[in-house]
Specification:
Elements: E1 7-12, E2 16-17, H1 26-38, E3 41-42, H2 44-61, E4 85-90, H3 97-106, E5 114-117, E6 122-124, H4 130-139, E7 145-148, H5 156-164, E8 182-185, E9 194-197, H6 198-203, H7 217-232, H8 234-241, E10 243-247, E11 253-255, E12 261-263, E13 284-286, E14 311-315, E15 319-321, H9 330-335, E16 369-373
Parallel strand pairs: 1-4, 2-3, 7-10, 13-16, 14-16
Antiparallel strand pairs: 5-9, 6-11, 7-9, 8-10, 12-15
Helix pairs in contact: 7-8
Length: about 375
């Protein structure tokens, strides 16, 4: 098989510049700015810094390793590689995630039978064999979308049965040639980094409702897939969605929260100035061996929690953790939730509170932070 290096496109969303807030309550203004930025409405200062960021990014792409052709991986014609290309695509106006993805297809950027849609805040923390995955997908048309395992999908079969009373184990596959791991069918359409068939996007994912500015595909399709499976059953409904996660027995994707980090003033710092493990909520433990990461959370085994979720922080050069603003009385700050919690508690599985405020939590039950270097 002749493999070509993939063309990589970085989609940069547009924005609407608005007048900034001056004076008044700083807390209120700060919330308005955050809400506006999420909707692509930014102040003149933020717009200026965003343009500067794009200029710096464009300059980086003109330098090695991005501008360096990949050398041939062998003398045989079956293993030739072409030059890798990384390009920036600046969208002229605000799109949001879903419409930006659609724009990539509408602009004719995707010309291959398979495509990887990657989020800017998802990092690979373990090796995967992309050629093997592509070969498996070419040989098995029923694999329409393949995800990489992350915190949310570790022990996915167990979570699915506990949360939704759906047994997916009979539909798991560990006999697919070329794949290092088991294929686990998903109940929910996730918007995380994954490899998909190009026509899966053009003929199915993007053929749904009219996309509005700011839409996210996960919000539009996630629960829709779950409800379809609950109504028609796994055997009938899931082949339409065709999405799986490859369980390699270790965490592969890591989500870096953009709400908790910022560019450091000292880019040369090895740990980016990040105060990893700071704060009274957790005990900080540095994890040095990569093979200790997957699913070995204190919340699952030691604490018998509702899920296997645990807290992980990555050290990323050039980024630092944003200091948390706390009240003078730390105990009071921890004792009272800041707002209504809409999801299920990791500890007991009930809605209405997070694990930090779970009435069933005992002393020492808080999960350990695992620290990894990227």
């Amino acid at each position: 098989m002749r493999r070509l290096a993939a063309r990589i496109y970085i989609l940069c969303d547009g924005y609407d510049e608005v007048e900034g807030d001056e004076g008044g309550d700083d807390k209120v203004n700060d919330k308005k700015r955050k809400d506006g930025t999420k909707r692509g409405r930014v102040t003149k200062d933020v717009a200026s810094r965003y343009r500067e960021h794009l200029q710096q990014l464009r300059a980086k792409l003109d330098q090695p390793p991005f501008a360096t052709p990949l050398s041939s991986c062998g003398n045989s014609g079956d293993s030739e590689q072409s030059q890798a290309v990384v390009e920036m695509v600046e969208l002229p106006e605000r799109h949001g995630s879903a419409r930006a993805i659609k724009a990539a297809f509408d602009l004719g950027l995707v010309t291959t039978p398979f495509v990887m849609v990657a989020q800017h805040d998802n990092f690979f923390v373990s090796d995967v064999s992309l050629p093997s995955i592509l070969e498996a997908m070419m040989d098995n048309e029923w694999i329409k979308c393949l995800h990489f395992i992350s915190t949310a999908t570790i022990d996915y079969a167990k979570k699915s049965k506990r949360r939704y009373s759906i047994d997916i184990e009979p539909f798991m596959r560990d006999d697919v040639n070329n794949l290092d791991g088991s294929l686990v069918p998903l109940l929910f359409w996730y918007g995380r980094t994954a490899i998909s068939r190009t026509d899966y996007y053009t003929q199915f994912v993007l053929k749904g409702p009219t996309l509005r500015v700011g839409d996210h595909l996960e919000e539009l399709l996630g629960v829709k897939q779950l409800r379809d499976i609950q109504k028609r059953g796994m055997a009938v409904a899931h082949p339409l969605w065709g999405n799986f996660v490859l369980d390699q027995g270790r965490e592969v994707l890591y989500h870096l929260s953009g709400r908790r980090v910022r560019a450091t003033a000292d880019p040369s710092s090895e740990n980016g100035g990040a105060g990893v493990g700071d704060g009274p909520d957790f005990i900080s433990t540095e994890v040095r061996a990569r093979d200790t990461l997957p699913g070995q959370a204190p919340t699952d085994e030691a604490c018998k929690s509702f899920t296997t979720a645990r807290s992980v922080r990555a050290i990323v050069p050039g980024l630092e953790i944003i200091p948390t603003k706390r009240k003078d009385n730390a105990d009071d700050d921890l004792a009272t939730p800041s707002g209504k919690f809409k999801q299920k508690c990791f500890q007991c599985g009930k809605k209405g509170h997070s694990y930090r405020f779970c009435p069933d939590t005992k002393e020492g039950d808080q999960p350990t932070i695992e620290t990894i270097g990227l």
